[in-house]
Amino acid sequence: MDVWASGEIYESYVGRWSRQVAKEFVSWLDQPAGLRWLDVGCGTGALTSTILSTANPSAVVGVDLSAGFIDYARLTVQDERATFEVRGADDLPDGPFDVVVAGIMLNFVPDRIGALRRMREIGRTVGTYLWDYADRMELMKYFWDAALDLRPQDSEHDEGARFPFCNREGLQGLFTEAGFAAVETRAIVVPTVFSSFEEYWKPFLGGQGVAPAYLLSLEQDAQDALRDEVQRRLPVEEDGSIHLVARAWVARATS
């Protein structure tokens, strides 16, 4: 049911929040200038553009399975140091790379351990971050808590249940199983503020990502009921704004 095709729509849904995490993530990696980076699952270019603007790399190669996302990244990332290719995590380019990173994508890779092992083979430093779906990725958690109260039979779609390893211990375990000896992890929390419920809800209608694709798979009456239930649960300020947070878990290791 997952849909990844329109970079512009995905950007309005969650890509913009990933960009906030990317800034702190790249700063935390603390890599010297002039390095060659590989961005695995680069999506709309959120992490690639942050690397270019803050890490002073010699080159960044971004790869993603979605041709639509790659088209969006090529259009919006105007830097001669960046190149983009349509590739999956099971078909990474040959290294060596100084730094290999993956933002908000490892959970969608069937063979996560194999992907991390390949990243270790071709990269000196490897880093990744994932949303804390089961706890403090609040814009999604409010949606899924409401959805499953209304339709408990659909629990297999919940990202918190699908990706139980998206936490400190889970990331540590994945990196260790992939052969990394010393792994550092931490949390990054960013605010996700919406001026109104309409601003919060509109990206879910675009169909890009797990929750929006699930929403559009429902009959209209069920969509309306879910919308009303989410709106009832969200914390709304007196001015109509909604102040949530998004937590990502990050990990880094040296091969």
Automatic annotation (TrEMBL):
BP GO annotations: methylation
Keyword Methyltransferase on entry: yes
One Pfam match: Methyltransf_25
SUPFAM superfamilies in alphabetical order: S-adenosyl-L-methionine-dependent methyltransferases
GO MF: methyltransferase activity
Protein's UniProt keywords contain Ligase: no
Occurrences of domain Methyltransferase (ranges): 38-122
Record's keyword terms, sorted: Methyltransferase, Transferase, Ubiquinone
Name the record gives this protein: Ubiquinone/menaquinone biosynthesis C-methylase UbiE
